[in-house]
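Colleagues,

Please find the record for the three-part complex below.
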Amino acid sequence: MSKKIKTIKKSNRQNTRFLHVMMLPAVIFTCIFCYLPMFGLVMAFQDYKGFLGFTGSKFVGLENFIYIFKMPGFLSALRNTVSIAFFKIILSILVPLVLALLLNEVVKHARYKKLVQTVIFIPYFLSWAILGGVIQQILGYNGSINELLKDLGMTPILFLLNNQWFRPIIITTDVWKGMGYNMVVFLAAITNVDIALYEVAKIDGANRWQQLLNITIPGIRSIVILLTILGLGNILNAGFEQILMLYNPVVYSTGDIIDTFVYRLGIEKMEYSYAAAAGLFKSAVSFVFVMITIKLANKFSDYRVF
Amino acid sequence: MIKESKSRMAFNIINYALLGVVALTCILPFVHILAVSLSNNTDAVAGRVSFWPVGFTTYAYEYVISQGRFFSSVWISLKRVLIGTAINMFLVIITAYPMSKEEKEFKARKWYIVFFFITMFFGGGLIPTYMVINKLGLLDSIWALVLPGAFSVWNMILLMNFFRGVPKELEEAAFLDGAGHVTTLFRIYLPISLPSLATLLLFTIIGHWNAWFDGILYMNSPSRYPLASYLSTLVISNSNKVSANMTMEQIEQLSKISDKTVSSAQIFLAMLPILIVYPLLQRYFMKGIVVGSVKG
Amino acid sequence: MRKRFFALSMVLVLAVSAITGCGNDSGSETKTSEVISQTSDNQADNNQTEGEGSGSSGFSDVAYQRYDEEITVTAPLLLLEPDATVPDGYTPETNEYIRLFKEELNINLEFEWIVETEFEAKWGVTVASGKLPDVFGGYSDYNDLKEQGALYDLSGVYEEYASETTRAFFDSGYELQMKQDGAMYSLARVDVDTYAEAGVMYYRKDWLDQLNLKVPETIEELEAVMAAFSEADLGGTGGAVYAANKGFYGQGLADFTPIFTAYGSAPSYDYWFEKDGEVISSITQDETYAVLETLNKWYKNGWINQDFASIDVWASSSPIVTDIVAGKYGIVPGSWWIPNWPLNEQKLDDPDAEWVAGPALTVQGYEAAVVKNGDDGRVMARSCVSAKSEHPEALIKMMNLYLEALLCVDNPTVAGTPREGWGKPENGFVYQWLPFRAYYGNTLIDNFTLMNTLIDEGRDELKEDEIPFNTEFYDLWAKYQTYRENPDDAIAWGMYYSRVDKNGGLGTMYNTREDLPTLLNLVDVNRIYRSFEQYAGVLTTLRDETFLKMIMGETPLSEWNNFVSQWKSLGGDAIYDEVMEVINESQ
């Protein structure tokens, strides 16, 4: 008996060291490809000129940031960014979650379930360059939706030119495009819930609805929280490519986001410094925001996020 | 088995219908692209194709198949996916395992978390990353496509969470039987986590298959592009090149915009592999994989 | 066809960008014919001195002197489509020009990288990596590179190594750059044509006929046509007849440029005119307001497609292009090449459709004008050499040889010599795959003039002194034959109508320049204005948002004065100050 304890004790020490060994490859990769390039962050504080490089470009301190912040339209872009991103984050958790739960309730017709699962994933693969055109066709003045409205005797709506409609359209179409992704994660999480729990519940007389509420949802709670918190890291990423495809000057007031705003600032020439400054600003804000959220989550729930 | 109640049946009908509607909205753009690819080009350019081919012709596919570039880029993408996915999965697995341990077992865990977490928000950007890749001599090789994104913190965090859901008792049992970390990982954790592994496998494959910008940036010639990069060159936006100075060759470029059926065919063919792989992986999302027994 | 023409010599030139000349021809025509006689003299000499000198072709001039040791010259490449006559299987590396450079000059031209898209991104990281290729073009960072000393001053090697032909093309660029910078940092050509785009209106002739209307010549007549078209709704749009997109000015297709021209406006932050002794911005001038007022009226009448402000004509699968091709619009504004695309696509789809270009529009109470950017000419299409390059003269030498090769195409004096097949795309000489170009600025006008001369005189053969200096001509001639035999051939029509017809695309553009007075832009296009860099972004945003909303009626036109003062305070005044500074400097 004592021999076994001794062996266990010895392997305990080896255990931890070995764990570090297992971490090593990822650490090396991260150092080389993530931390090493971070020297480029200095670009945000320079008047970066390609040929002069990082060492030769003039250091301008916070000038780039001030330039961007002072530009008329920046605050509006910031507001739009947060507003759009916030709804996108929430809905891109809720919608796939509901879909995953609903799919989980398809018990009998496995083929139908498989088909729907696959099909929901399709929009994820279509780039905004393609989808943008499709959406413009559908929402155009003579597009399908307006045809329907006209048939119903209503006046056509210029959706993409309307400041009431633009944001909802951006949010909805982006959630629609990406819902397959999180849905898969939730499906996997649902599958991970121990069957035995369901068996026990059934014996206790719980119906499917109660099973859903009391077993499935708590069972995947950690993943949902995790995805939400990680999703909050995108609080300033409102969807550059999508908005660039779909926006126009008439909806700048609700649809212009930080990225498109900065893009237009630097478009006259290859202006990297502004993009770098905006990027750093976004990273810093998102980081702080998520850190705060994690601290709060850790405090108020018994669940440790990490 | 509990008999299906009426309300259950009603729920099922609504559920199926709802899912059906959602699925329909998702498949329609796809059907549209397919229809365009099988249509006569002039009708396609004039916008007459909705969900059914107009002037049915397989010309677009015949043309694509005759193009060397399409297939050579598919081959490059396949190589990238194979090598990249293998490396990614390996790194994710061997990293998620230690990270899933409790603090008391693995004290340094907290620091690793911070170390990785920061990289999810801060990055050097395009130019410094390019410079690093350049200095490492990886330019114009498959490694430039595979190595930079080889470790995904996001995936690692996901898997780490799934690993934490593995019942502690299983691990302790194995431990008492003398199993080391590697054995525990491969004999206990992985088999139980098949759904999550399938998820990550899917995401990794899709990530490598779809990535296009790095192909253009790191490869020195279009002949070495993976498929997604090649496809990106077909979807042209021309505003920079347009001016009063149009030479004949520029008009040629412009009228390539009108090669709608061919670019649709290529888009469709590019989506096809994923649509085949995904259903194959789906069975891992089916319930019912219980490994061993905890009791006793 | 080509054998029918008795070509003494020809220079093949095409450009990445070029503007044609009009009215400035006589000078350069003489010069090029001098070039021809000189080079043919050279060739006669060279044929006699075969064997002397270093290359197999017998060049003895230092301009063509071969390097003793093979040198490598690196360059980036933007891959463009080769001529259709280039046989399959050629790659940028097996381009016959590459082989030629190697054999004749011992220069190994290597491509650092090749892209089809995302050139700027790729170039950006290349520059950032610190290692510039030896030879490259002038991109948006040209001025930065110049200021940072990254570019080689080519004046010395140009003077020493440039051949006669090379000088014929690049001397004007040499002179202008020496004047501006005291050095020549790029091998560049000066475009004497500095006209801004005035826009051409294209109308569905069969619709006009059907409704008994004639082609409008004034804005008022245009409005009558639009009303009639809208009523008849021959395109099935429900009333919209004027194809427009959110890029409302200077887009080349589906914009309001012809209307702005009719009122004498050119609303961009870099257009400043003199009116009544004052320097004013084209954006804030009264004429621009008048245009917006008119457009707002048209929009309210439903004549402009109601969602135009959300459509980008240059996006892929742009709805407006689709609709134009589908024949929904009877009034399509654009540049001279519109018949060549997308109108030819529309005609392909509907062979009964007929298109006609209308004359420049005028309007009561305003003076229509074509804007011109100064008389200094504009430096275009640069080729640069890295300051660290070991062999800066390599670019000049390659250019010399390249032009020589072009002179060999269809040139009977080289028949039977090793140079016989040089330069021909059919033999694998792909000029689109070279990192530098030589462009002959008068291609469009020359072909236009020549084709019309032949047609008017009913001739099918060129005279000896009529040889055109570009291969575009032969393609054009071939398409014209097709068109003559079958006027319904949409593709042939498109080429013919845009480039040849006296009242077609080019024809109308030239007529417009003759008929309308010229408005001189006081901005010096060869100069960098700091205020442009600083304020262009925000001013363009303001302009776009305001103008589009005013046209749509979302912002009342009465807000105009507010717009003007906002525009001024956000940067307009700063630009004005700098523009005045430059003007006063040069006086």
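Chain B has 15 helices and no strands.

Comments are welcome before we finalize the supplementary table.
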